[in-house]
Amino acid sequence: MKQYRIVILLILSSFVGFAQTKTASIIEDFKPSVVNQPGQEYPKVNSQGYARFQISAPEAKSVVVSLGLGGAKGGTVLAKDQDGYWRGTTEGAMDEGFHYYHLTIDGGIFNDPGALNFYGSTRWESGIEIPAHDQDFYALKDVPHGNVQQILFPSKSTNTSRRAFVYTPPSYHKDKDKKYPVLYLQHGWGEDETAWSNQGRVNLIMDNLIAEGKIKPFIIVMTYGMTNEVKYGGLASFKIEPFQTVLVEELIPYIDSNFRTISNQANRAMAGLSMGGMETHSITVNKPDVFSHYALLSGGIYKPEEIEDKSKLKLIFISCGSRERPESVQSAVKTLKDAGVNAVSYISENTAHEFLTWRRSFKELAPLLFR
């Protein structure tokens, strides 16, 4: 479990990273973030990666944006103007991609009314998108789109109905006889089953890759990993068995009964980011007869001695950002290859423990699945 404690600390200490170099002058080409509330002008972002905020709080004494490392108190300190608005710009350019943030107003924590909310760090947080140079692969395009639907499945082990989201590819409702492989895809600590489609844009990545003919279409199932019950600092007490029961004994049979799946080990994969990677690691090692493709996205590594039977294992994919521990990922994959395992590594350049790392990782992973 020690290797996973490091992962969780990374999540909690570094949702957002600043670029190491600051630009001498700010280009005034700011535009509203693409994940703003409808009709809201702020927050804004520019082509260099700076973010600008405007908050109406005429009676407040201080307003700090918890995005990045600029300013005091680990955030961007806004200044009050005579009109009662607080305004400010990050001191440096942000990492490209999606980031969580919130406001601290006179010591209280609030969301930005201008931004959409996303479930992360065990609460609904404001979100912002810094335009990425390679954002085309997760952009909304004029291509056939799949469907993301909510399902409720019975869980005797937890004595309730549990929720999952299921992505079906564009062809699913056209060819009523075709069956599909399935990827079970897990979120990270403090997130939930909405993360991969909302923050990760996994459905758009799939739609675009399918339209380009780069992948074999498959179903994706995303469910809550029972991670939020783990308190900060309490990962050592985490037990995989309750979620393993939900996934293997309850969710998978439900999916196979209610969707047109190819319901065998060879056509079933599991992947997860961060703590979802930890869950993936534990369950795939415990249940090698259930999954044939494993993927850890900033979520630890596999060791050759953990793979008891290589004959039915088709792929191990391990990735992280270049600002995480890329040498660990590359070394682990080399060791697996030397042991005769089909292993692939991927390093996302200039990103840390954040969603652009995982979006890029999924883009690299998807074409390798079910080939």
For the report, how would you describe the main beta sheet? 8 strands, mixed
Uncertain segments are 1-23, 69-73
Helix content: 10-25%
Q: Would you tell me the structural class of the helices and strands?
A: alpha+beta
What topology, given as strand order, has the largest sheet?
13-14-16-15-17-18-19-20
Q: Return the CATH topology of the largest domain.
A: Rossmann fold
| Computed CA radius of gyration, to the nearest angstrom | 21 Å
- CATH C-level name of the largest domain: Alpha Beta
Globally, the shape reads: globular
- Summarize the helix and strand pattern as letters: HEEEEEEEEEEEEEEEHHEHEHEEHEH
Mean pLDDT: 91
Q: What is the CATH homology-level superfamily of the largest domain?
A: Alpha/Beta hydrolase fold, catalytic domain
Number of domains: 2
The number of distinct helices, counting runs of at least 4 residues, comes to 7
CATH architecture of the largest domain: 3-Layer(aba) Sandwich
Q: Beta-sheet strand percentage? A: 25-35%
Number of strands: 20
Give the distance, in angstroms, between the N- and C-terminal Cα atoms. 32 Å
